[in-house]
Amino acid sequence: MLDFRINTFLEVCKYMNYTKAAEELHVTQPAVSQHIKYLEKNYGVKLFEYCDKKLKLTNAGECLKKVSLKMFNDEKNLKRKLKESMENKSTISFGVTKTIGEYVIAKPLSAYIKKHPEQEIKMEIANTNQLVKKMKEGKLQFALVEGFFDKNEFDSKIYASEKFVLVCHTNHTFNNKQNRNDANEYNLEAKTPNRLKDLLNETLILREKGSGTREILTKQLEAVNIGVNDFEKTIEISGMHTILQMLEEDAGISFMFQKAADEKIKKGVLREVDIKDFQIEHDFAFIWPKGDAFSEEYVKFIEEL
Length: 305
Fold this sequence. Notes:
With about 300 residues, the protein is of the alpha/beta class. The chain folds into 3 domains: about 5-70, Winged helix-like DNA-binding domain superfamily/Winged helix DNA-binding domain (Arc Repressor Mutant, subunit A), CATH 1.10.10; about 80-145 and about 290-305, 3-Layer(aba) Sandwich (D-Maltodextrin-Binding Protein, domain 2); about 160-285, D-Maltodextrin-Binding Protein, domain 2 (3-Layer(aba) Sandwich), CATH 3.40.190. It is built from 11 helices and 13 strands. The protein has helices at about 5-15, 20-25, 30-45, 60-85, 100-105, 105-115, 130-135, 210-220, 240-250, 260-265, 295-305, and strands at about 50, 55, 90-95, 120-125, 140-145, 155-170, 185, 190-195, 205, 235, 255, 270-275, 280-290. Strands 3, 4, 5, 6, 11, 12 and 13 form a 7-stranded mixed β-sheet that branches. It has a two-stranded antiparallel ribbon with strand order 1-2. Strand 7 (about 185) and strand 8 form a beta hairpin. The radius of gyration is 24 Å and the shape is globular. Mean pLDDT is about 90; it is low at about 180-190.
């Protein structure tokens, strides 16, 4: 069981405000201050400091927060496991990013559930940043993400590697003004661009900030000194299903995992465009907090999925 003063410390970290932490814990503000002072004396370090009248963690405070959160989450999972052992049941709670949730996970998860009818499954769909936050808060055990993650904070296991491609309406006409006279840079017969710079006069439909799909695209564009704001127009949409519908209406172009567009490409509604300086694959990876006490349980589930 965690020391109650550690719980107080984590509440102050959550709100970065002694008064708010006291309200949430239903104790007085002096009691909160006393708990923090006890921890500082016990560890011989300063945990918080004020900067421009705002409370912030010291380096030592950041270290204690990281370790305490891990302990808090391990204890939370332990309580869950002990309770489930008494009730003779087991629950897996994990998250997946939106593309994976909508286009990848349904079939393998259904097969797993048929094989393990006794297993209770709770799956949440959100973007990479949101899933990482919920894991840190102990609300999810692990997640399957397409975005980048901090390998210093999370252990991982690759689930699949998928092509990341440019997609548009089958009959989309590209609006390229720069390279139409350069046969090496622009396919005149097919009216199709060959390089990323040929796309800047297009309307780019992209996912919201915090999305793994958005981050992958941003990093790849940066590699050739292009930003999303360099496009003629950008439209930000938080759902891949809506993006695909907009592409069907020829409202712009978009970059995504090929898996998301496969069905509509096969039907001939959309097409994949080959871009010379955009040839990438990216991993779908299961991730969980580094050193998690129940990591073996997660790996067993992952290997069966």
